[in-house]
Amino acid sequence: MSATARVWLVTAVAAVAAVIADLVVDDPVPGRIPALGFVGCALIILASKRLGKALLSRPESYYARPDTEDRLNVEHIHGVDPVAAAVTGEDEGTTSDQGPDRGPGQGRPRGG
Amino acid sequence: VVELLAHPVVPFLVGAGLVAALPRRVGAAVAVAVPGLSLVLLLRVDRDEPLTAGLHGYELTLLRLDGLAAPFAYAFVVISALAALYGATTMARAERAAALVHAGCGLGVVLAGDLLTLFVLWEVKAVASTVLIAVPGRPGASGAAMRYLYLHIIGGTLLLAGVLWHLSAGGSLAFDALGGHPSSNLVLLAFLLSAAMPPLHAWLPDAYPAASVAGTVFLSAFTTKSAVYALLRGFAGTELLIVAGVGMALYGVVYAVLENDVRRLLGYHIVSQVGFMVAGAGVGTAAAINGATAHAFAHILYKGLLLMAVGAVVHATGRSKLTDLGGLARAMPVLLVLYMVGALSISGAPLFSGFVSKELVTDAAGAGGYDAALWLLKLASVGTFLSVGLKLPLFGWGGPARDLPRRPVPSTMIVAMATVAIMNIAIGVQPAVLYDLLPFPVAYEPFAAHKVVEVLQLLTFTGLAFWLLAVRLRGEPSITLDTDWVYRARSQQVRVAAADVGGRLASAREAARTRAATAVRSRLAIDRDLDRVPPVTSMNALGVVTLATFLVVLAVGLLA
Prior knowledge:
- The complex is a heterodimer.
- Chain A has helices at 3-24, 32-56, 69-78, 82-91, and one strand at residues 57-59.
- Chain A is mainly alpha-helical.
- The relative contact order of chain A is 0.06.
- Chain B is mainly alpha-helical.
- A two-stranded antiparallel sheet of chain B has the order 1-2.
- The two termini of chain B are 43 Å apart.
- Strand 1 (57-59) of chain A pairs antiparallel with strand 3 of chain B.
């Protein structure tokens, strides 16, 4: 039996048990809460994911400065902030060592 | 003067000064002791004698501890002590001092009996929290802190404008039920901004995860919950709040499903849970106010626990994204157990704190005749268990073990988490502990058979649907656009344009000229680094924002 089939089987057994429990506690519409849980959960997952795909999802670098994209990834791996390190370094007069990829004006005195 | 010195906020402010001046270790002990002292003062407050002071002919009520304020005040001092203990070894001095000012002003807001005291503490709280976010200097923190500050300056301006308008229209300074006069709409808007109602909520998931792990625990407790208190005090029974609250509850759920960062995910579930409280304020009956208050109290405890537990994971591994985590169950079983106590509490599982508080709100909505709200809030509960109770632990702790970096978790963190966990269970097992604190007598039996059956069914069938669809929920390395796009994308375009101009300048001119251009542009603050504290000149943006807010206020005033 496939994993999916097993989940459906468990769900079916649980649904029967739930309806019996509802009858015991005199729920006006037996099975409504299990239905809300199951359908609601599936609906939330599928609708949210669809909304994300269609409209809301963006790459992680979306708000990052275009020229810091690769450095942000480096930071992510090593847990340090190379942008800060680079800016501080530049403030100390090492601009000429920064390489051609740095546009002007990326460093400025900290704290203004 | 003696009475003023015995104000429960005083220990926080004095303590903040001490923490800033004393060595770090001593400061850590002071920060844990301060809320204890404040609690002693709270318990000694004479509830029938508010503390008043005169100012230019206005009577200020600096301290009013009544049935509505008390549960919030107690929750605030308890979580302050435990958050300070949690951050005892990790927080820096300035950060800890800011946290105490933030906590103290949050406490002061719920104790304030007049609108002017409320406004002053409201603003100091916002500034202190900005410092709390920015000081640890995590990646992206300065930008998030400034955006947070701008939004709260707007909120504060709305609040001040509303209060002044209210006064000039002959209203009293006392902070009681507002409404009726159009000025109250401005105050309501300010409260809703602080309560993180979409579309004015994006500061919360933006800024809270940018703070340090202990800073986030502090932040999660005060701003939104003091706004809930203010809504309960000023706008109970405003039906619009039911729509706002239900919308918040579902909005947070949808974004949490899409979120990959664990602390942002929990941030969206602050929005969602505060929605329950705002809806309770909207229903406005005694039972609903009880429910919103109880849920705020429980929320402060379980959300504190959840953020502490994932914060400990972030502290230990240096990672906060579900796609980078996983397989931690064997390495960090204690954190998983503590996290699950918080997760079952927020999901409203029987014998945990959320069970005895959330149902008070939904029950009151049903009793008030708001059936649509009742069922939509139940749907939001499904989404809460789905994201916080199933998705986060499955992808954070579940799966095959991965080779993640490990730092030891300080024992102070574990002690703080264990204490909060015990409190959550204690409230869940013995709800009278919480119910006795509420503003009105509670006639509600949480452990009635049909309630327990209902919640167990809801959680079970949510779990079954999750089991079928879990594959689709695996985290993705992406972000989700939220309403902060409105003010973040614009500055992004400006930056891209500036970088473009800068690039052409660089290729065309020598370094000296470039340096001059750099100076000019840095002064104009066009292309300041996103992650640095901005130069003073960029505060012009703050001026523009404030001015624009005043213009909006003026326009509203002229139209009204």
